[in-house]
Design brief:
It is globular, with a radius of gyration of 16 Å. By secondary structure, the chain is of the alpha/beta class. It has helices spanning 37-44, 59-62, 65-72, 80-86, 145-157, 178-190, and strands at 4-10, 15-21, 27-31, 48-53, 76-78, 92-93, 99-102, 105-111, 120-124, 127-131, 134-135, 138-139, 167-170, 176-177.
Length: 204
């Protein structure tokens, strides 16, 4: 059976926390418990949390991590680069290309460095949870020109290799699709950009 995906808008920013639930086993994964642990736990209800997955280690995406982990005692997955850079205590490393089972649902990890060194996405059934790697209209925030260049390369090799109808669910705001972003991404690749370009960048 097709899994369900719940999106919770949490915290003052707000940010998106996602619940991937296998409908045949009621096992679920919590992705980015950024804030409001009580809201997350209420939505989990009687489901069995098999893991907590982090797209990256920034504070707004892990603010409720310890409270949720304490209640469900579920192992936490994070890329080693962000575990080290952000000081997050994970239980298992997220590796590019690995498959994580949530009940009978397979979730594929893709490494998307740029926004952070260990940013990842989680792909399943024609959708992907992309954290802050990409948003409608542009890539995620980058702290240096080198990080932006790395982001563009990783997006081109991964996300823009996917089918146009793949839905992208970011860490903040509304979803988009690969097809909706492809034209802007390709224009960005053809454009001339100042050598110090980074930060909040748009495709235009």
């Amino acid at each position: 059976m097709t899994p369900t995906l719940d999106r919770l808008e949490l915290g003052p920013w707000p940010m998106n926390c996602y619940l991937i639930r296998c409908t045949s086993t009621d096992q679920l994964a919590i992705v980015d418990p950024g804030a409001d642990a009580d809201k997350i736990l209420s939505r989990v209800a009687d489901g069995t949390v098999c893991c907590i997955l982090l797209t990256h280690g920034h504070p707004d995406h892990i603010g409720a991590l310890e409270d949720v982990r304490r209640v469900h005692n579920a192992p936490v997955g994070i890329h080693l680069a962000d575990a080290q850079a952000c000081g997050v205590d994970g239980d298992f490393p997220l590796l590019d290309g690995m498959q994580i089972m949530v009940g009978k649902t397979s979730v594929e990890v893709a490494h998307l460095p740029g926004h952070t060194p260990g940013s990842v996405s989680f792909k399943l059934y024609g959708i992907a949870l992309v954290g802050d790697a990409i948003f409608p209209g542009g890539p995620g925030h980058t702290s240096s020109p080198q990080a932006l260049a790395q982001s563009i390369v990783s997006l081109g090799q991964t996300i823009f290799a996917w089918a146009d109808d793949t839905e992208l669910f970011p860490g903040h705001g509304a979803p988009t699709t690969v097809g909706a972003e492809r034209g802007g991404f390709e224009r960005f690749l053809r454009g001339d950009h100042p050598p110090d370009l980074c930060g909040d960048v748009a495709w235009r």
